[in-house]
Amino acid sequence: MIDFNEMLMFARVVECGGFLAASKKFGIPKSTLSRKISNLEQRLNVRLIQRSTRKIMITDIGREYYQYCLQMISSAEEAESIIINKSDKPTGKIRLTCSNVLMDLDFSAILAKFMLRYPRVSLHVKIFNRDVDIIAEGYDLSLKIVTNEAKSSNLIMRSIFPLPSAFMISPSAIDRYPLLNKPDDLSKVPTVAWLSSHIPAGWTFRQADREVKITHDPRLACDDIRLIKAALVRGVGVGCLPLKLAARELAQGSLKTIFDDWALETHKIVAIYPTRQGLLPSVRALIDFIIDEFNDEKNKSSEIK
User: Are 130 and 142 in contact, with CB atoms under 8 Å apart?
Assistant: First the structure.
């Protein structure tokens, strides 16, 4: 007889990359995990996991079996979600991770509004400036800013909102660098750069059929974009920012755009989540809500103009 608990525990161990990690994450004794998987292997008469003192190795047949286990878990989660959310009111806990730059884009207010809209949903949010393995680390959803939408074989990436960027400089820096007329001139001035695992180093400028790639050794490099913006405003150097993030400074005149006849690659806010079927209604509702909020703000800005 099939023991679905054995399949579940096997999948958890594979997801976490080991018995100890799975034990800590899911609160299941390591001995129980080991016993269940041994029973599973004996029943199937195959070796699914090769064990050593420090790590595990998944056999080829184990990897194939793991995919079927994921389908089983996904179907079970979807069935439970249908029952729990029969009233079409999302409920339950969402484990969410996002990059800290989103907090500077009023993302915290969007999350608060979502929780008021859906009082039966709870959010557990962690803010990181690093790549997150959402499956291994136990997150339902990751939100971050990228410059491309390269697909992962294990994850879905859904575009939420574009963030056009521009090169910026302060009025005081303009006085010091009057010959800054084209991207190639950047080699003559100090630069500041927003560093992130999701944002490539350097800049690519496009104009008609021309493309200019700029590499540089920044005077200031940081993964916190607030410091980059402050340095730009004070004239430490020149650099690139999403227009939405610098809207106030551009309106007040403390920053100005340059190289306006050149196009920079657009940053994007994206949602990343596992590819398994049966995305929880609460997670889907959150993604849709965030998209609606950003688009509402865009429409309001267009009306003001």
Answer: no
State the average pLDDT over residues 80-92. Answer: 66
Q: How far is CA 236 from CA 123, 172, 218, 270, 291, in A?
A: 39, 10, 11, 31, 35
Reading the block at residue 177, the tokens are 């660098």
Q: What is the mean pLDDT of the chain?
A: 83
Share of the chain above pLDDT 70, in %: 87
Dihedral of alpha carbons 256, 246, 129, 153, sign: negative
Nearest in space to 271 (alpha carbons), one of 107, 121, 119: 107
- Please state the separation of Cα 305 from the chain's center in Å: 31
pTM of this prediction exceeds 0.85: no
Which range (16-25, 30-39, 162-171) has the least confidence?
A: 16-25
